[in-house]
Write a structure and sequence with these properties.
Distance between the termini: 71 Å
Mean pLDDT: 86
Radius of gyration: 23 Å
Low-confidence stretches: 79-85
Number of domains: 2
Number of helices: 4
Strand order of the largest sheet: 1-2-3-5-4
């Protein structure tokens, strides 16, 4: 078998994708690595033109991504995605405004060393201490102390 034969190239592409997952975690690139390995395996069984290889690569990668990503995230991160989004533990916490909040125009607050988008019923200047009263998606609802 040649060093640059299509099955070996697809295997190397898959390996690079898997290694990139360690550098850029997010459990996305790994599925493209698996898709590349699927193509490499199929090429060992039967030759096919590059168009079919790309079609199999893209379709298998996207299918695996949509079918398995959420389950793998829960398994690897040991957190329920719903728990991440509730943020109820932040209600009642104090934060500092780092980007002014202009009524319904969101600003940013710093809470436990992390910046969050925040909304309030009134305008709040930078540097003002606020208290978290709730959340709307990933935006904290705050009011001045």
């Amino acid at each position: 078998m040649e060093l640059f034969s299509p099955p070996i190239l697809w295997f190397v592409i898959g390996l690079v994708c898997l290694l990139l997952e360690f550098i850029l975690p997010g459990i996305v690139i790994v599925f493209f690595g698996i898709g590349a390995w699927i193509v490499a395996l199929l090429l060992l069984l039967l030759p096919m033109p590059i168009e079919y290889q790309l079609l199999i690569f893209i379709s298998s990668s996207l299918f695996l991504l949509m079918a398995l990503r959420r389950n793998l995230q829960k398994w690897f991160f040991k957190e329920n995605a719903d728990d991440l989004l509730t943020m109820q533990e932040y209600v009642g916490e104090k934060a500092i405004v780092v980007e002014a909040i202009a009524g319904k125009m969101p600003g940013k607050v710093e809470l436990h060393g992390t910046r969050w988008e925040a909304e309030a019923e009134c305008e709040i200047a930078v540097g003002t201490p606020v208290i978290v009263r709730g959340k709307k998606n990933l935006t904290l609802l705050v009011e001045p102390l």
